[in-house]
């Protein structure tokens, strides 16, 4: 028979939804509570996302927490200290596929992993590696924004910029939150007139 584990079990929590839905704010809220509980926390973000700050995770509402920018899941995992209790990952959709196994390994060794990221891209397609992360997570929280067109509950990210690449880092100049009915999945925005 197996004995009682000496360390609490780790877990994976995913916070997901469209842009502006409060994913980063929720991530920061959970981290602040962990810090209040005197847990050892490490926060990471992908190096690609330097929109607001290089060394902090910053929400659209300007709340922020210290973070390390890393280029790959391998580099993230290598930086997690032996005694870390909580690992936070923002913009998880920008990481390589290895982030899923990284989260698994960290959780298996007792770490509470909290990953926030987009569930869908600008065309409404699942944004890898988020579907796999959601599949292995103990807990998935979907958060919602306010539709910029009708004021309803938004679940999609409408791209306003003409670029047709999946990755296009940006904020309100390039995207707005929209509900299913107001969302228009298209690569090139309609011209006026
Ligand atoms: N359409 C919108 N719906 C909801 N919040 C919005 C919207 N546009 C701007 N915001 C702001 O964005 C904040 C959420 O930012 P953030 O946590 O960074 O979201 P996410 O990480 O999901 O993009 C809200 O508290 C609000 O201040
Ligand atoms: C829909 C979509 C978004 N992005 C980018 C735009 C932003 O830089 C991030 C999302 O940030 P947020 O904290 O969730 O607001 O992702 C992208 O590259 N491709 C897309 O299809
Ligand atoms: Zn709408």
Name a few traits of the molecule:
metal-binding, Rossmann fold, single chain, binds the ligand Cc1cn([C@H]2C[C@H](O)[C@@H](COP(=O)(O)O)O2)c(=O)[nH]c1=O, binds adenosine-5'-diphosphate, nucleotide-binding, 6-stranded parallel sheet, binds zinc ion, ATP binding, alpha/beta, cytoplasm, 193 residues, 20% helix, elongated, 4 helices
| Strand content bin | 25-35%
Q: Could you describe the largest sheet, including whether it forms a barrel?
A: 6 strands, parallel
CATH superfamily of the domain at 11-143: P-loop containing nucleotide triphosphate hydrolases
Topology order in helix (H) and strand (E) letters: EHEEEEHEHEHEEEEE
Distance between the termini: 73 Å
Briefly note the structural class of the backbone.
Answer: alpha/beta
Shape: elongated
Within the largest sheet, what's the order of strands? Answer: 5-2-6-7-1-8
- Unreliable stretches (pLDDT < 50, length at least 5) are none
What is the CATH C level class of the domain at 11-143, in words? Answer: Alpha Beta
Family: Belongs to the thymidine kinase family.
Active site: 91
GO cellular component, one term: cytosol
InterPro entries: P-loop_NTPase, Thymidine_kinase, Thymidine_kinase_CS
Please characterize this protein's 3D structure.
Helix content is 20%, strand content 26%. With 193 residues, it is an alpha/beta fold. It has a domain at 11-143: P-loop containing nucleotide triphosphate hydrolases (Rossmann fold, 3-Layer(aba) Sandwich). The strands form four sheets. The protein has a six-stranded parallel beta sheet with strand order 5-2-6-7-1-8, with helices on both faces. A two-stranded antiparallel sheet has the order 3-4. Strand 3 (56-58) and strand 4 (64-66) form a beta hairpin. The chain is elongated. It starts with 10 loop residues before the first strand and ends in a 15-residue tail after the last strand. The chain binds adenosine-5'-diphosphate, ligand LXEULUCI and zinc ion. Adenosine-5'-diphosphate is lined by residues 17, 19-25, 59-61, 145-146, 148, 177.
């Amino acid at each position: 028979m197996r004995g009682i584990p000496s360390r609490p079990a780790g877990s994976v929590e995913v916070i997901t939804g469209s842009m502006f839905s409060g994913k980063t704010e929720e991530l920061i809220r959970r981290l602040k509570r962990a810090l209040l509980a005197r847990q050892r926390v490490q926060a990471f973000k992908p190096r690609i996302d330097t929109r607001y700050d290089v060394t902090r995770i910053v929400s659209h509402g300007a709340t922020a927490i210290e973070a390390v920018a890393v280029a790959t899941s391998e580099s993230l995992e290598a930086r997690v200290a032996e005694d870390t209790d909580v690992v936070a990952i923002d913009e998880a959709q920008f990481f390589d596929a290895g982030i899923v196994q990284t989260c698994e390994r960290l959780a298996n060794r007792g770490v509470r992993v909290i990953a926030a990221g987009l569930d869908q891209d600008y065309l409404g397609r699942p944004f890898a590696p988020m579907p796999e992360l959601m599949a292995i997570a103990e807990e998935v929280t979907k958060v919602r924004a306010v539709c910029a067109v009708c004021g309803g509950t938004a679940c999609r990210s409408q791209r306003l910029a003409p670029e047709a690449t999946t990755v296009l880092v940006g904020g309100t100049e390039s995207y707005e939150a929209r509900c299913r009915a107001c969302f228009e999945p298209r690569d090139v925005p309609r011209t006026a007139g």
